[in-house]
Amino acid sequence: MTILSNRKRDSELISDELAELLTSIGTTRKIKAHSYLFREGDEASELYLITSGRYQISKLTSDGKELYLRICKEKDIIGELILYAYQPKYMLSALSLTDSEVMAVKVDVLEQKLLKNPELTFEFMRWFSIHVRRLQTKIADLVINGKKGALYSTLIRLSNSYGIKTKEGVLIDLHLTNNELAKFCSATRESINRMLSDLRKKKVISIQEDGKILIHDLEFFRSFIGCDQCPIEVCNID
């Protein structure tokens, strides 16, 4: 079997110099499983480099539902949307899925350091733009293609992040309940049940005994949403 994803983690997309800057001004912090590192709307003063563990990044929709956006892990940077903002507040929430450790970086200190080094500032903003584009494409999938398109794009993103190529297709090597999958799509569990059942009847997917999804026809999803074949740094779930 072949693992499809070769996406570099956030700290691997930046130079050694910028990575060293973040760690040099950061403070190590241990976080217990199932606790929030930050919540949407909280006053923001830090961004975080994950050194171990896994986080669920989410946002509340206008009707109060929780929309899952990313699953982040070691070497990823979270809370980055607050940089250079006036009286910043976190735009998203970060829930620890496991016991974890992060490097907390004070934003005001980082901003001062970056102002003294234009090359690093440009590099950071270029990396930041990837995150913004990733968020924009995720929201666009929901708005333009509806619940079904949101599910299809989520399955594509999951395959890019956790896909393993097999003789039968692409196995998503991550177990998600239908309720969890629904939260990636701003949908109900019942609607996800119906859509997955329809996909199974069409033989586009099958469900393994352990609950993992095996995709037999990725092109079915790509054709439906008019996939732009975005680079894996943008089209992923992590």
TrEMBL record:
Keywords (A to Z) from UniProt: Activator, DNA-binding, Transcription, Transcription regulation
A Pfam family of this chain: cNMP_binding
Organism: Bacillus carboniphilus
Location of the HTH crp-type domain: 145-219
Record-given protein name: Crp/Fnr family transcriptional regulator
Record PANTHER family: CRP FAMILY TRANSCRIPTIONAL REGULATORY PROTEIN, HTH-TYPE TRANSCRIPTIONAL REGULATOR ARCR
Stored CDD domains: CAP_ED (cd00038), HTH_CRP (cd00092)
Highest taxon of the lineage: Bacteria
Annotated Cyclic nucleotide-binding domain residues: 11-120
